[in-house]
Amino acid sequence: MKNTRTNAIPASWRGMLDDPRRAAAHRSYVDEWEKKINSFVQIDPRPGNGEGALAGVPYGVKDNIAVKGLGLSCGSKILEGFISPYTATAVERLEATGARVYGKCNLDEFGMGSSCENSVHGASSNPWDPARVPGGSSGGSAAAVAAGLVPFALGSDTGGSVRQPASFCGVYGLKPTYGAVSRYGLVAYASSLESIGILAGDVDTCRQVFDSIKGEDPKDQTSVPWEDRSGESSSRRIAVLEDLSDLSPGVDAVYRKSLEGFREIGWEIVPVRLKTLDYVVPAYYTIATAEASANLARYTGIRYGYRAEGEDHADMVRNTRSEGFGHEVKLRILLGTYVLRSGFQDQYYGRAQRIRTLIGDEFSKVFQGAEMLLMPTFPVAAFPHGESGMDAFQQKLADKFTAAANLAGIPGLSIPAGMDGNVPVGMQLLAPAFCEERLFSAAREFLSVYEPARCPGFKEPS
Amino acid sequence: MSKYQSFIGLEIHIHLLTASKVFCDCASRFGDEPNTNVCPVCMGYPGVLPALNEEAMFMSYLVGKALNCTPAESAIFDRKNYFYPDMTKNYQISQFHSPVGTGGWFDIDVEGQVKRVRIHDIHLEEDAGKMIHSASGSLLDYNRAGTALLEIVTEPDLTTGEDAEAFLQQFRSLVRYLGVCDGNMEEGSLRCDGNISVNLTGKGLGTKTEIKNVNSSKFLRLALNHEIRRQKKLLERGEKVVQETRLWDEASARTESMRSKESAHDYRYFPEPDLPPFRPDEAFLSRVDGAMTELPLARRTRFVEELGLKAVQAELLTEEKSTADYFEAVVALGSEPQNAAAWITGDVQKYLKRREEEIASSSLSPERLATLIRLVDENRINRNGAREVLEAVLEEDRDPESIVAERGLEQEDNSEELAALVDKIAAENPQAVEQLKNGDMKPIGFFVGQIMRASGGKADPQAVQALIRDRFGL
Known about the structure:
The complex is a heterodimer of chains A (462) and B (474).
Chain A: H1 20-37, E1 40-43, E2 58-62, H2 89-96, E3 100-105, H3 139-146, E4 152-157, H4 163-169, E5 172-175, E6 195-200, H5 203-213, E7 237-241, H6 249-264, E8 268-272, H7 277-295, H8 313-324, H9 327-339, H10 346-369, E9 372-376, H11 392-397, H12 400-408, E10 412-420, E11 423-430, H13 436-446
Parallel strand pairs in A: 2-3, 2-4, 7-8, 7-9
Antiparallel strand pairs in A: 1-3, 4-6, 5-6, 5-10, 9-11, 10-11
Helix pairs in contact in A: 3-4, 5-13, 7-9, 7-10, 7-12
Chain B: E1 4-15, H1 54-66, E2 70-71, E3 78-81, E4 91-94, E5 101-110, E6 113-126, E7 130-134, E8 137-141, E9 148-154, H2 161-178, E10 190-200, E11 209-214, H3 217-236, E12 244-249, E13 254-260, E14 270-271, H4 282-291, H5 296-307, H6 311-318, H7 321-332, H8 337-355, H9 366-377, H10 383-396, H11 400-407, H12 415-428, H13 430-437, H14 443-454, H15 461-471
Parallel strand pairs in B: 11-12
Antiparallel strand pairs in B: 1-9, 1-10, 2-5, 3-4, 3-14, 5-6, 6-9, 7-8, 10-11, 12-13
């Protein structure tokens, strides 16, 4: 098979939205797919400036990232009718390259979920097999890219929300170093963990988009000036996890094969143990829900979004929040309120923060002996919709491979690495902070041992 | 020793005089059309992030220094969670674990005694908006939301309403000296809550009540003293003080219960993940040092000890920094300190008050006042002439010298002319002369008045008097 994924954005995307004929032809392609996968919640191409490296290239934006004049639903009823009055920094930076927002992509409500079924706009589906989920919470962004509706899309990754759907849909998914990309305009779920991430059909597009959006932003004081710390790759040692249980047979097979693949292209395999891995999920959910309980307090129906009726102000707010938030969101707000309550902070939140430090330390140790770490992105491949799939609790437990990177603030790139039946399986590469270049270059190398396919029905634009 | 002891601690909020709000670029200005100084950040819109205003941090560290606090090497912001309609995010960005300053003190003068009040901490936070209740419903104005608010928390070292009143007045003077707050209590740029408990002497703190939102230092004194009496009475009767928040009711001159502890909040503080810790570097700290100024109490003491002013005058002169600066400028130009102080706290203050002007912005520059004082000292004009000149300087914005010349106010010291006048008036008033010769001194005033009139006010009254005494051998 011809290697179609090594080049950055195919020329056919360039200027596409500036050419009415091509734009219209593409629109019918999109509409056909949307009946099956429901990846967009709003399609409304924004005007472009017609200049720059990505002039006229359409892209999708997860609907928890602000674009002035477009909705910002976060997949929630509580933001019904809300139109964003401003634009996120990452989107502004892409606008400066000439790229144009094509529309807003579906997601799990406020970024909480692993299936993209938990949205007021209905579930999205996996383009490889619409009976299955596309993964979450950036499922809409991943599905849209996998189906070829857009060459890339922005997502957000709090505990794996870019990498897991990338794995399920067979595309590349980057969660950058914390602080490398401005969060200004990303609707907060868990501020200290989340980043705006990128879903792309090929690794060089991913890299190019990352180049465009990274860097310090005065509007986000947790952002930092970009400084590449990848260095010269001299050691070529890649760490792998020694004892992996809990993997589905399909994912396990792909993991072993990827490991062999890296050995084949000249990497030395260093087996390591991550003793803290078992603590990732409890620490992650404690911190994430604590922050979420504060971040979601602003949705009251008073100034924007959905408003319920009520006897008085307090009653109105209560009804608005009861009717406006979905179950998963309510669960996490309650959990977060519980772990922060007076007298119990040290027992829960404080302890989670200490675990977080230990996880970071353990990663640092691993990276002293290896350039990168290879792990599965998710223990299973894309599961079926509904009750035959994974339940919400199983989904949370399965976040341990991805959420570790969020706790440590390090970059992770999920790359297509094999198939489990008719659906793809991704593996993630992790590197020290500000070493994204290592991830891109390893992903490029890996193409010589695994050439990912496109989903059935995929067409490049003409 | 009295049977009961009272403990008062204050929580003071001041609006910092920053140009923009604490976490966004919106103007920090009140009184504008409602909801005009707002943006997605201070409105808490989805996806926005706070960006710390360094000017607010600077002013906070400056207050910390003035209050002898230990400055935080790493000032951390926390989220304080509570629901309120005029708070846009429903959490307030404040400081809890590592505030700007801790463990300081502030010396106040209470009736001539210096009293040291310990400062627990000072912390920076954002203010909420304002609710306006009308017949058709409640309206919200968010112009104030996100403005920089510095909270100063004292230890319970004050004992009476008078202490608290003095503290508040002198603290107000301090923040105005530092230029960080206009100190206007009526407009809410300085707000104060008082915590108070009464207990048997030696038993330590009792159950406290909190008095909220008192809008003048006088009401603070009245409310606290009322509360001390109320709590003593309860204890006398063997009843318990309930921990609660109370409001001062001006009309009935009493405190009234507002809410009890049962409805107290669990603020669920945790570190604000959107703001990295603020670590002042050396340049920042030396800028703070450079902005430090001599504080009111120190200046007052110096004016008394070094310049020989009376305590009352020193107090009047040092209450506002601009007045004290003005006074020192006049002294630097050669005026004798007590003389300059008398002028400024006397005639100058009187004329300015009448004209509703501030000394610093009036046309009476320190140079002009120094000139005026010199003209009097050199006997070139008399006191009445000086008052006329003072008024004219304020009115016409011109130099005293030219006003004196134009109006011919220069005193005559031509004694021959004056002697001729004395002769003339003596000739016209033989009875008065007779009285004087018989030892009745009353007509002296009459003579001086007549001569002053005849000279068109230019005569030096003292010289005239001397001349009369000389003429009639008195």
